[in-house]
Amino acid sequence: MPRLLTYLSCSLIAFSCLLGCNAGSRKNSADADGRLRIAVIPKGTSHQFWMSVHAGAEAAAEELGNVEILWKGPETEADTSGQISVVKNFITGRVDGICLAPNHSQALVDVVAEANAVGIPVVVFDSGLGDGAKIVSYVATDNYRGGVLAGECLADAINHQGKVLLLRYKEGSESTEQREKGFLDAMAKESAIEVVSSDQYAGTTTEEAMAKATQLLNKYRDDLNGIFAVCEPNCNGTHEALVQTGLKSKVKFVAFDPSDRLIDGLSDGSVSGILLQDPYEMGRQSVLNIVAHIQGKQVDAVISTGEYVATAENQSTEPFDRLLHPDVADH
Q1: Tell me, what DSSP letter sits at residue 97?
Q2: Cβ of 202: how many Cβ atoms within 10 Å?
Q3: Could you give the C-alpha distances from 226 to 17, 68, 157, 194, 249, in angstroms and in order?
Q4: Contact in structure between 227 and 151 (CB atoms under 8 Å)
Q5: pLDDT tens-digit profile of 253-281?
Q6: What percent of the chain has pLDDT above 70?
Q7: Whole-number mean pLDDT of the chain?
């Protein structure tokens, strides 16, 4: 009997140790070495905008000193299923927090709810998320106001009269849908401006946008005065279409988000204005807020990072120069 009791006692101690070890392995990494592992998940990884978000996230990590940024996203902004897989993998890996730019407002709701269920907090940035999941805060441009400013800029460029068109991005992208709505609301206030097309989607690549813009420019070329495109790939494709159709001097163009070719367009007159966000600050504020939340601090539910209109006249002044040439991360 004493031997049996001794055996049972040893077995219970061993089993308790095993449970303790397994429980410890389930804890987040911050419990082990004091560093928080924060996943930052963009809509895509191939555009300058996201590279600047990455730079801002890394700057926040350096500023805080106890944070590791895990940067991963789909290569293209059209790959919603790929983005969902990235989020799921980070949930499985038990990161301490997630900063997410949903490339579809509804399709990412369920996977964010999965993060909620296992206690991983989520900050959403750049583009909004639909109802059905909890987020810590939303860090973004006021995209509706950006669309209004784009409309006002284009109206000024065509002397508040003529025909214009809107080139949309893709269905389900909350940020660009807000820009489109803001632009159309601004146009509705212009009694002498007619919007001849506002229901065409250009897709998520420069090549797709160029093809769609070329089609529309050829259709309306005889009496078109202005065009607005709502994000970097669309704008690059639209600008190339204006060049290829010979309309870059006739049709006034307002873009959203900068690239080298669009910045050159400000100087040569083929771009009347570029709506600017602050992607660097977007990435920085997202990481600062998720970490503050993890540390038990109060954070704002909505954080605006601003919106600006760069023109040929102001492009060399601050903050426009900085936002036209933002810091980007090395990949």
Answers
A1: E
A2: 27
A3: 71, 45, 8, 10, 11
A4: no
A5: 999 999 999 999 999 999 999 999 999 99
A6: 90
A7: 91
Domain boundaries, the chain: 30-139+279-303, 143-276
H-only helix segments in 245-304:
260-268, 279-294
DSSP 214-251: HHHHHHHTTT--EEEE-SHHHHHHHHHHHHHTT-TTTS
43 DSSP 8-state letter: S
Q: What is the pLDDT of residues 75-89, one digit of tens each?
A: 889 899 999 999 999
> What CATH number should be reported for the domain whose range is 143-276?
3.40.50.2300
143-276 and 30-139+279-303 share a CATH fold: yes
**Is residue 198 within 8 Å of residue 220, measured between CB atoms?**
no
User: Regarding the domain with residue range 30-139+279-303, which homologous superfamily does it belong to in the CATH classification?
Assistant: Response regulator (3.40.50.2300)
Confidence of residue 5 (pLDDT cuts 50, 70, 90): very low
Going by DSSP bridges, is the β-strand pair 97-100/138-140 parallel, antiparallel, or unpaired?
unpaired
Q: Which helix (H) or strand (E) holds 312?
A: none
